[in-house]
Amino acid sequence: APVIEFRQVGLTYPGPPPVEALRPCDLVIEPGEFVSIVGPSGSGKSTFLNIAGLLDQPTTGTYLLDGIDTTTLKDSDVTSVRGRRIGFVFQSFHLLPHRSALENVMLAMTYNGVPRAERAERAREALACVGLGHRVAAMPSTLSGGERQRCAIARALVARPSLLLCDEPTGNLDTANTATVLRLLETLHDGGMTVLVITHEPEVAARGSRTVAIRDGVLSEQVMR
Ligand code: ADP
Ligand code: ADP
């Protein structure tokens, strides 16, 4: 099954006045694709992300994630489907400041019923995979911006999601760290990960094998490479 299948998915914030933030749209993202989502501020990118990431339910349409109809799930099932199938990467990293890199990554498996020793082992592997094998004990404040984002990517990967959903992943990074994080996303993509990146940076968008544009809540296919 596709990782993401939107069938006439739309969201209108009730208001008043009502805001049609995402017009009903169809979108299919197959396993292993690297898709970038671009659009100006206020165009509906966060609305799209919140729906794709199961943080918000659409007000119309059907959203299938890995073939699962998410629009008919109970809230508790939405939470577990999200935790197992989606890894989130945010602009602002969202690392817990008083926990080590290893603990931050381990916490992403707390709800998956994985025993502690195995969580530690998998967290070490994930950190090694993003090049932070030597920094497992480091506190976030001692990591550089690029290292923080790589730690956040390790956290996103450790539950072995089918989709990596990245919201402006390089928005707080300088040029060198942006390049490092983009290389890492490409490596993950080469390894078969499905990657969805929301960005307003053209050089980041260009890494996608296709680009979907949102403008005024309307989704459209922009480029095929
Ligand atoms: P972007 O992420 O591209 O900046 P958003 O998805 O945040 O865009 O917003 C899309 C539109 O929906 C904007 O017009 C915004 O003002 C509106 N909007 C966002 N959140 C809400 C909300 N909770 N209630 C009402 N309108 C909202
Ligand atoms: P950015 O730093 O990219 O702007 P935000 O901090 O604005 O990201 O978060 C984007 C969206 O994701 C928001 O709707 C926020 O509520 C939600 N969010 C933030 N942190 C998490 C998290 N750890 N897990 C799930 N959703 C989150």
Automatic annotation (TrEMBL):
InterPro entries: AAA+_ATPase, ABC_transporter-like_ATP-bd, ABC_transpr_LolD-like, MacB-like_ATP-bd, P-loop_NTPase. CDD domains: ABC_MJ0796_LolCDE_FtsE (cd03255). GO terms for molecular function: ATP binding. Keywords: ATP-binding, Nucleotide-binding, Transport. It comes from the Bacteria. Gene3D superfamilies: P-loop containing nucleotide triphosphate hydrolases. Residues 4-225 form the ABC transporter domain. This is ABC transporter ATP-binding protein.
